Structures
1.
Amino acid sequence: MHTRTTRPARTHTQRMSRYRGYCGRVYVFSYHKVRSAACVRVQSYWRGYSARKWTTEFRATCLAAVAILQLTISKFLLRQRLAFAAKHRGAATLMQQVGWSSAGVMF
């Protein structure tokens, strides 16, 4: 017949040591949970800050570019209108001298 051997009872010091280990593991586990939650908060605040900063800088750059482009384009269009007017300045007078009316028929 097989007899079962029991292990010797733990001493008070061994039990306290195991309990301290258990408490330490629980503390570390809860600390990691809190730390990772805090890291997520900090990272989300940082992403929001950097996104707002980038958007502000981008809008300022776009406004400056639009101001420069509007000025440049309006000057270009003015030069084009003036060139067209100078080129066709005498066209209406010349047409009247030749005999064309505004309806496109000769007098």
2.
Amino acid sequence: MEKCREQVREKGMWPRFHRCKRNAVKDGKCLQHHPDTIDAKAEKRLKEWRAKIHGSRIVTAQERIEELRKQIESLMAENAALTSEICRLKAKTGEAINVHI
């Protein structure tokens, strides 16, 4: 049976490599070294990491900051609309326009 084509590092102080001793299952590589398995494991680790930090304080704080930023933008737009309305009404009545922002 064909062996895996992947080069693996030997244990020890000095870096030496040899071919993997496992049987090739797909595309000349064993299950451990096949790209599909490696990608699946990486995706699994990424999902676990995201689940772990999702409830962390940093993520919660970032979400709160984004909410506050949106509130500030809407309040600024509302303030601009009210200021222009005040100016329009004062101009209509002939009052002096003193708008403090």
